[in-house]
Amino acid sequence: MITFENVKWKNFLSTGNQFTEVQLNRSKTTLIMGENGSGKSTILDALCFTLFNKPFRIIKKSQLLNSINQKNCEVEVNFVVGKSRFKIVRGMKPTRFEIYRNDELFNQDAAARDYQKFLEQQILKLNYKSFTQIVVLGSASFTPFMQLSGNARREIIEDLLDIKVFSTMNEVLKDKVTDSKISISKYDNDLELVKSKAEVQKNYIKKLQDDKKKKNDQLEKDIKEQELLKECLKKVVLLEVKKIGDKDVVQTKLSKVIKLREKLYSKKDKCEEEIKFYKDHNECPTCEQTLNEETKDNHINKNNDKINEYVKALAELLEQLKPLQDRFNEIIDKEKFIGETRSEIRTLENVIDRLRGEVKGEAVDDVDVEKERQKLKNLGKEGISISKERDTVIGDKYYLDVASILLKDTGIKTKIVRQYLPVMNRIINKYLQAMDFFVSFEINESFVETIKSRHRDDFSYSSFSEGEKQRIDLALMMAWRTIAKMKNSTNTNLLILDEVFDSSLDTSGTELLHQILGTLDNNSNTFVISHRDALFDKFRSVIKFAKHNNFSGIN
After folding, report:
1. What are the pLDDT digits (tens) for 322-339?
2. What topology is assigned to 2-152+470-554 in CATH?
3. R_g (Cα) of the chain, nearest Å
4. One-character DSSP codes across 130-191
5. Are strands 29-34 and 73-81 parallel, antiparallel or unpaired?
6. Which long-range contacts (CB under 8 A, 24 or more apart) does 205-212 make?
7. What is the mean pLDDT of each run of 10 residues along the chain (555 residues)?
8. Are the C-beta atoms of residues 539 and 500 closer than 8 Å to each other?
């Protein structure tokens, strides 16, 4: 239960720089009086501004600041919830919003909007609409329950029955469902991405394998071509080797012919030397005898004959030497060709060995393919992990969907409301009868009313007179307060009626309402704002507002 103790304000609306304070729990019934513009309804705006950061009347918030002083606007409300005493302070120029519990200031690190949300949901546990239906009933800007939209009616009933937590849970649940959908969508995208990567990886591995096979096929083809060329060269070498099989014979003959030629040249040179000797000398170098011309001529002729024989023999020998030399030169050329061919064969063998090594080893390519296969396996593991996480989120979303069905307006809240509807309708009709308004009033789980007269004629709220409508509005307000007290949800000591007695209620209705207010328990503190002086003696306390020098205050 919320027990409001006092409210005070300064530089607020027409109030000056001195605090105006109203004790809210001092008297069971209090009449607030004053002329128009005297500030008697300021208490409503002060409470709503402090608690909900908005005025009660339909004016701009900036208009709450005193137009003369234009600064240091401050409003303070003190109340007790359970064992905790709270003080709410709100101001303008400078802006101020503070929440105290047991004289200790709450942490203000959060944003102002979150701070306000904390005040409404965690401390007051009622919002502006509920406050203006259960605590305050005013003629200026009050919207009766029957003129509210279906959603607004639902909010008030949920506050009364303390089931707004289900709406809060539903809002949280909606966020979780949204997060689940986002997560599932993300997992779906991640899975598609992994699948795409895996497909690309498979194609890449296949390309590597195809390239390897193509390369190996080409290598095998090159090896065959090189081996074929090698075999051909070997055959050429064998043929050429056969062609020089007479090398030793030719070399032997050539050697003999050359030696014989050298001998003939040597003998020929010797004969030529003797001829020269006999031509140049007249004495014998051995016996020192004089050589006559005849002897010299005989020796010269004899040597010339020998030279002729040697020349003839050399000519014949040269005829034998030429074919042998040509054959020998041919053999040398063939041996050179055979050597070059054998060198080519060795080169081909090295090439073939290298190609075979590439075919057998292919170490680098094999490692690359294995690495890519490992990447594919890792993608598979990643896909399995994502699928498991996705399945977990889908499983959680199933329960969230079930919970969402339960927390919808048509779910568990409707069942709770359905159970309380007979009690609510009975209490509403009790207050209507107490005000001599004998109709059967019922609201259903969609908060749509059915009103029937004694003769069971169907009526709507709009078909009644203003006085009858106000009796319905008052009956509903009193019923909501009774239910709040039963549920201890939005139960409070405070009730403020702004000019209710001055509007459409007739004398009889006013008397009946006053009687109803008198039946409220001693923990209730009712304030009635009115112009009627005739009500003066019907209240235990009276507060009169008046203006002095354009500033409002308690007279």
Report:
1. 888 888 898 899 889 889
2. Rossmann fold (3.40.50)
3. 64
4. HHHHHTEEESSS---GGGS-HHHHHHHHHHHTT-HHHHHHHHHHHHHHHHHHHHHHHHHHHH
5. unpaired
6. 205/369, 205/372, 205/373, 205/376, 208/365, 208/368, 208/369, 208/372, 209/369, 212/362, 212/365, 212/369
7. 93 92 92 86 93 89 89 95 93 93 83 81 84 72 74 77 74 86 91 91 85 83 88 88 86 89 90 86 75 83 89 88 88 89 89 81 63 87 90 89 79 81 89 83 84 73 79 81 69 82 60 69 84 74 89 87
8. no
Helix pair angle (164-243, 293-360), 10° resolution: 160
Residue 77: closest CA among 156, 135, 141:
135
The confidence score (pLDDT) of residue 92 equals 94
CA–CA dist 185, 390 (Å, integer): 9
Selection from 117, 138, 129 nearest residue 157 by Cα: 129
Q: Can you tell me whether residue 503 is helix, strand or coil? A: coil
Where do the domains of the chain lie?
Answer: 2-152+470-554, 197-372
DSSP letter string, 218-254: HHHHHHHHHHHHHHHHHHHHHHHHHHTTTHHHHHHHH
Burial letters for 106-136: b for 16+ Cβ neighbours within 10 Å, e otherwise? beeeeeeeebbeebbeebbbbbbbbbbbbbb
Beta bridge partners of 101: 86, 104
> Is the separation of the CB atoms in 51 and 77 below 8 Å?
yes
d(CA 81, CA 2): 5
Position 206 scores a pLDDT of: 87
pLDDT of residue 365: 57
Query: Residue 386 carries which side chain, given as an amino acid letter?
Result: I
**Residue 510 has what pLDDT?**
67
| 3 state DSSP class of 408 | coil
Strands 440-443 and 136-138: unpaired
Copy the structure tokens of residue 363. 């170490």
Q: What is the pLDDT of residue 53?
A: 93
Of 55, 72, 54, nearest to 16 by C-alpha is 72
As a residue count, the chain comes to 555
pLDDT value of residue 411: 75
The residue with tokens 């027409």 is 14
Distance CA 369, CA 383 (A): 21
Burial of 547 (0-12, 13-18, 19+ CB in 10 A): middle
**CATH class for the domain made up of 197-372:** mainly alpha
State residue 11's pLDDT score: 94
List all residues 6 or more positions away from 272 whose beta carbon is below 8 Å from its beta carbon.
303, 307
